[in-house]
Amino acid sequence: MSPPKLVELKKRLGELFDVGFIQPPKSLYGALVLFQRKHDGTLCSCIDYRALNKLVIKNKYPIPLIIGLFDQLGGPKWFTKLDLQSGYYQMLEEHVQHIRLVMEKLREHELYNKKEKCSFGMQEIPFLGHIIGGGNIRMDLNKVKSILEWEPPTKVTKLRSFLGLANYYKRFVKGYSAITTPLTDMLKKGMTRKWSTRSPQAFDTLKQAMCTVQILALPDHTKSY
Fold first, then answer.
1. Span of the secretion signal (predicted)?
2. Domain identity same for 118 and 140
3. Taking all residues of the chain, what is their mean pLDDT, rounded to a whole number?
């Protein structure tokens, strides 16, 4: 670990110890700590608990589909977004719907929002790589920038990663399946074969489609459709 990251690690361990979240270990085992730099330049800590996860109970419960979450946001005109600072260390048992009640609970449990990432009274708001507002949804172009800058893949893993990212926004691309057919065929054939004349064309066409801002209407559940 580099010296700057080691300094950050010691700082965070000290903070967690001071508030009683951690204590000196008596175990013979440990977990690797990694750091990833955020967009604002600060460091985000990640702990590799894969070995521990193999031993714990696998609780299974339904997770809502992202598309389902988007479909519920067609009616509201005003939005508020909160981002809990170190949210995984702050255990709020249940969410409340009204902002005033949320704030009261946060104060009661001494939880703190990261003000730089909070938004109040917005007519549109970024949400999971999308911009939502006015009953519409569109791609957040800041998030799809990596797709536009993607170099032509030379390995199956790189092609699969590209298609996985592009697939997240497929609802915005008319004829997505037809456009990507030459690329998905390459996954079956393997990248050991040279690209056909259709493959680079499909790659460029898909990237160009991502550049085109498409706005979709979210369903209004108060009306029949």
1. none
2. no
3. 81
Can you give the residue range of the structural domain that contains 26?
3-53
The DSSP bridge pattern shows strands 130-133 and 136-139 to be antiparallel
Residue type, 171: R
Q: Please state whether the predicted TM-score (pTM) of the whole model is above 0.85.
A: no
Measured distance CA(68)–CA(105) in Å, rounded:
27
SS3 call for 12: helix
Helices vs strands, H then E, count in the chain: 8, 8
Full DSSP string of 153-191: P-SHHHHHHHHHHHHTTGGGSTTHHHHHHHHHHHHHH-T
Same domain, 131 and 117: no
Q: How far apart are CA 2 and CA 36, in angstroms?
A: 13
Query: 48 and 140 share a domain?
Result: no
Residue 71 lies in a domain: yes
- Report the C-alpha gap between 67 and 216 in whole angstroms: 12
Among residues 133, 115, 8, the alpha carbon closest in space to that of 76 is found at 133
Q: What is the pLDDT of residues 135-156, one digit of tens each?
A: 888 888 887 888 888 888 878 8
Q: How many domains does the chain have?
A: 3
Q: Rounded to whole angstroms, how far apart are CA atoms 95 and 194?
A: 53
Asked if residue 59 belongs to a domain, the reply is no
Same domain? For 24 and 36 the reply is yes
**Residue 157 has which token pair?**
């893993």
